[in-house]
Please model this.
Amino acid sequence: MKPQRVSIIITTYNKPDELIFALKSLLNQTRLPNEIIVADDGSHKETGEAMRSFCKEREVPIPIIRVWQEDVGWRLARSRNNAIAVASGDYLIELDGDCFVERHFVEDHLYFAKKKRYVGGRRVQVKKRLKEKILKLDEAKITPFTLGIYRRFYAIRSLTLARLCSKERPPKENEKVSDNFRRGIQGTNFAFWREDAIAVNGFNEFFQMWGPEDVEFAQRLELNGATRFIMSQYGLAYHFRHSKAARASENEKIRPNTPAYLESLESESRCKNGVDRAIEHAKAFVRPEKGFVQFDF
Model:
């Protein structure tokens, strides 16, 4: 069974230029998503103004929804739950706002979509100088031979290679959980069924620092019976490389040592502090047929 409706969820925080470039790439798809939801973790007014201007300047055939929450620190997990609660798609594809995608991105994800499967894709890293050039010219033509990228193997789109290189990845015996999931899962270029996310109560809102909310979420999906699938050479995404966010934890070692993370290793699949909060609030949301709308949490 293939998805009937696809929602793209883009996380953002105060990067309006990069976000608008991401939106352009998503509106240039061979298979348009049914909606785009921008999960905004408290950006200043410039982001909302940029989105409104973007939608006014062109015919936008689908809803572009900004779900915004107050900036009281790093609350990415909560922001993602806001977007999941509002989403009308049965299949959700996540991106970061500093990423853009090749024009077959949605089509490629749907090729590998399967019930009780979640998909982790790859991304090409774009260096600062090339990023500045792309944003200035307002276009990106990236091949595996483009200067200013690395992980360039992931810039090759080929169905033959995708069939050979993409595969299900069950946990290896005696492998640390953090190593097991980190090698295949990041919160960007990441797709899952909405019903699976609701079943595990979405992302764990305990996490109010940089990571590992994506790893912990993926583990609970598997505890609930979902299978991990690593997609390569299909669903191409490009990431504007940057230094670590100022709001992120200065000590990355805190991530695998947080109590919630350790507890999750032997816990139930459903977290305590998750998307159910946002679902209740989202009952007041009125979805547009197309164009821009904002909904605050």
